[in-house]
Design goal:
This protein has helices at residues 15-27, 38-48, 64-72, 88-96; strands at residues 7-11, 31-35, 52-56, 79-82. With 101 residues, the protein is an alpha/beta fold. Strands 2-1-3-4 form a 4-stranded parallel beta sheet, with helices on both faces.
């Protein structure tokens, strides 16, 4: 019996990083959706219902923390943060908002 292909949503504004993730995850057999900003990322999330979200924090407009709050208000889907930010405060804020990793 064929299992359903796992879906991953990548929300990342930096093109090279986003494209690298999309290419590698697609190569590994995942169905990958992506967005380069938070607002569109939330729309894609609502439309596609992914099994995992990889989320950048530092995006113009709606930042990753805002996206995280919106997704968490409607879903317990696993969310991984991908960011250059490394402060303890950012880590604590992410875990307070129920990020998975």
């Amino acid at each position: 019996m064929m299992s359903e292909q796992q879906k991953i949503l990548v929300i990342e504004d930096e093109g090279a990083v986003r494209e690298g993730l999309v290419d590698n995850l697609s190569f590994e057999g995942y169905k990958v959706f992506h967005s380069d900003n938070g607002s569109d990322g939330v729309s894609v999330f609502e439309a596609e219902k992914p099994d995992l979200v990889i989320l950048d924090l530092m995006m113009p407009g709606k930042d990753g923390f805002s996206v995280l709050k919106e997704i968490r208000s409607v879903s317990k889907v696993p969310i991984m943060i991908l960011t250059a930010r490394s402060s303890v405060e950012d880590q604590v804020k992410g875990y307070d908002l129920k990020v998975d990793d």
